[in-house]
Design goal:
CATH topology: Dihydrodipicolinate Reductase, domain 2
Number of strands: 10
CATH superfamily: Dihydrodipicolinate Reductase, domain 2
Order of helices and strands: HHEEEHEEEEEEEHH
Mean pLDDT: 82
Helix content: 25-40%
Low-confidence stretches: none
Strand order of the largest sheet: 4-5-6-1-7-8-9-10
Largest sheet: 8 strands, mixed
Radius of gyration: 17 Å
Shape: globular
Oligomer: single chain
Length: about 190
């Protein structure tokens, strides 16, 4: 699990409203991060691991909520074109398309929500804010990304009942991560 994204309640509330109320049926994630340092420390990537395997934990952490009847995830395809890794999977009957790379000279994170072929909403993520655009009303709003997630994480994990829920989420994510790893290894062959 990716703890910062698991506890990002502002974004998860938007996800819940779009999935449960507006009944979106597809989400496209664009996750590009060509940065060599994070918090002043040089980033290192395991060359035997695809970037999509690292990013999946962030995506699953955003999607996961205990109030969904299930957190069923089925992987469809994985490929690489022009240094961009493409993963398609289904999460609770919602089609997910993830395009990601740490090998091209781009740095942005964008999430687009669809109902049929129509764009419903999008979230652009930066270090300082989340920019949410509603395509139906054409309204934009900005939410500060001054997260107090660390305090939330401590309080949450100190509660025994919530710890059990978190363990359940982690076990699901590990299982799906294993399926993803097998899919990526098939691509390699």
């Amino acid at each position: 699990m990716s703890l910062p994204w698991y506890f990002e309640k502002k974004i998860k509330k938007i996800f819940y409203n779009l999935i449960s109320i507006k009944k979106i049926d597809r989400i496209n994630f664009f996750w590009f991060d060509k940065i060599n340092k994070k918090h002043g420390i040089k980033k290192r990537f395991d060359k035997d691991t695809y970037y999509v395997e690292d990013i999946f934990s962030h995506i699953f952490s955003l999607l996961y909520e205990k109030f969904y009847k299930s957190n069923n995830t089925i992987f469809s395809s994985f490929d690489i074109k022009k240094k961009i890794e493409n993963l398609e999977f289904t999460f609770n009957d919602i089609k997910i398309n993830l395009k990601c790379s740490n090998k091209i000279n781009k740095r942005y994170k964008l999430i687009i929500f669809f109902k049929g072929e129509k764009k419903i909403s999008e979230i652009k993520i930066s270090d300082k804010h989340f920019l949410i655009k509603d395509h139906k009303t054409n309204k934009k709003r900005e939410i500060a990304n001054n997260s107090d997630n660390l305090i939330k994480q401590y309080k949450y994990l100190l509660n025994q009942k919530k710890t059990n829920e978190f363990k359940k989420a982690c076990l699901q994510q590990i299982l799906f991560q294993n399926h993803l790893n097998k899919l990526c290894r098939k691509f390699q062959q």
